[in-house]
Amino acid sequence: MKNYLAVDVGGTAIKYAVMDENADISISGETVTPTTSLGDFIRALMQIYESVEYTNPEALVISAPGRIDSSTGYFHTGGALGYLNCVNLPEALRNHIPLPICVLNDAKAAALAELWKGSMEDVNSGLILTLGTGIGGAVIIDGKLWQGHNFAAGEFSGIPVHWDTRTGGYTGTWANINCTRSMIDRYCAAKNQNPDNMNGKQFFQAIHDGDRLAMNELEWFCETLATGLLGLQLILDVEKIAIGGGISRQPLLIETLNEVMDRQYERKASCIPATRPIVEACRFSSDANLIGALRHYLLQKEEDTVSS
């Protein structure tokens, strides 16, 4: 069975794994993501490759932030890694790593993992939202990942909210309201606590301990999230929405979100022709981007075989 080197580039860490064509992992690890330069980033990838070269990987498959042309590996933007802006990564790596290389946006990679072996398996139309420092996302249409004309479909973080008609602009984005950090920051402000000392797990533990302020914040968070999802549903009319990110591991989040959506759809049933989608947590968590990057390569290879 063939091996593949999958790499998931994050803002703070680069995770990697050697896996077979069924996405079974035999080796895994991680290293710090360079913040300095493209050269340092390339050296980090070279070190990863050299550490697993003995496994004879057939290809290097990469998941990364940014708006990426998945057919060429060109970064229109590199997200938090500015040195990737306007870089064709496979070309930059060509003289350093002697493997076929393909690259896909991280949220879209997570969607391919869910579509292949997860919550979106056998789903014809769906949305995936990953809640974290922003709102990553992906759109599935006709059972396939839809990337958009310019590979920007699913960039939900930037959806404008709080329109200001006096200036003709907007004063916030969806990510400002429904990223995990914003939820924690609002709760800590209400409690007069330092938000740097709290994470998502501690927030949900406060709810389980009976903290009413924390529960109020979660309910408001789910109200606004459900409102955004209603807008997307009116546009796309999907059958399922899957929620990812660290806090999606908390059953209370999905439970509360579904309760809020039930109420919203009941209230709007007579005036808004929206069908209530299924909402559940993504099946994969930490390995989703690695699995999706592999799936992207395998699909590209199938397409190349058919076209030839």
Short description:
The protein has 308 residues and is α/β, with parallel strands linked by helices.
How would you describe the overall organization of this protein?
The protein is of the alpha/beta class. It folds into two domains: 3-110 and 286-307, Nucleotidyltransferase, domain 5; 121-281, 2-Layer Sandwich (Nucleotidyltransferase, domain 5). It has helices at 38-52, 89-93, 106-117, 174-178, 180-191, 200-208, 212-236, 251-268, 288-307; strands at 3-9, 13-20, 25-32, 57-64, 68-69, 74-75, 87-88, 101-105, 126-131, 135-141, 144-146, 160-164, 169-173, 240-244, 278-281. A five-stranded mixed β-sheet has the order 3-2-1-4-8, with helices on both faces. It has a five-stranded mixed β-sheet with strand order 11-10-9-14-15, with helices on both faces. Strands 5-6-7 form a three-stranded antiparallel β-sheet. Helix 3 (106-117) crosses helix 9, helix 5 runs antiparallel to helix 7 (212-236) and helix 7 (212-236) packs across helix 8 (251-268).
CATH architecture assignment name of the largest domain? 2-Layer Sandwich
Q: Please outline the major beta sheet.
A: 5 strands, mixed
Helix and strand element order: EEEHEEEEHEHEEEEEHHHHEHEH
CATH top level class name of the largest domain: Alpha Beta
Q: What is the CATH topology of the largest domain?
A: Nucleotidyltransferase, domain 5
The stretches of 5 or more residues where confidence is low (pLDDT under 50) are: none
Net shape: globular
Number of domains: 2
Share of residues in strands: 25-35%
Determine the structural class based on helices, strands and strand pairing: alpha/beta
| Average residue-wise pLDDT | 93
- The helicity comes to 25-40%
